[in-house]
Give the backbone structure.
Amino acid sequence: MKFSNIKIIVIFLFILSGICGLIYEVVWSKYLALFIGSTAYSHMIVLATYMGGLALGAFYLGRYSDKVKNQLKLYGLLELGIGVYCLAYPFIIDNVGNLFIQIATSFDGTPDRGGMLLLKFLLSFSTLIIPTFLMGGTLPILTKFFIKHINNAGKDVAILYYINSFGAVVGTGLAGFFLIRIYGVESTVWIAALLNIIIGLTALIISKSIQINTQILSSPEAKVDSNHQIYSRAAIQI
């Protein structure tokens, strides 16, 4: 498969990834509003954790991607991780709610309201930091995959950021106006999670073809054939 065709497929996958990311953000706000008891607080927690997780993931996973030969494979694994985690998110938040009840009832007398609110914040943060951290690594990893020449770095990063942001806008509209209203919160998060898993599997399949092509091109037979073509062209020119 030609690299230009692979780029088109990966760009499409990254648009879908952006759609999933903002579907999750809308859905998480709904879940946490029920858990915390305040829509304003739930939006604040989701936004803070989302941006913080993206920043941490971009920093640590972006640096780690420098050591990886096949960035597309790593991207596929991240998308799979996001999908699997979010597929289980309804069960995770239910267990977190049960944990909060156990902690709250363990206090003698009336628990401190401020302390309970802080506990809700910490528990909510713990449910979101893993997927947002993985999401944060996708952009720098794909940037390393796309950029072959430093002269095109700014352009390639801008294109990736644009298509991911475009997907985010689409995802917000889909979740807010259609998916949740038609299918409900739980089914919506499962739809996005399954889409993430498909994205991850597709990226892994493509990464294998890239690895095979790289091995073929780096084999001694390929080098000999390449040298033979060079000498043949030189002889023709002479």
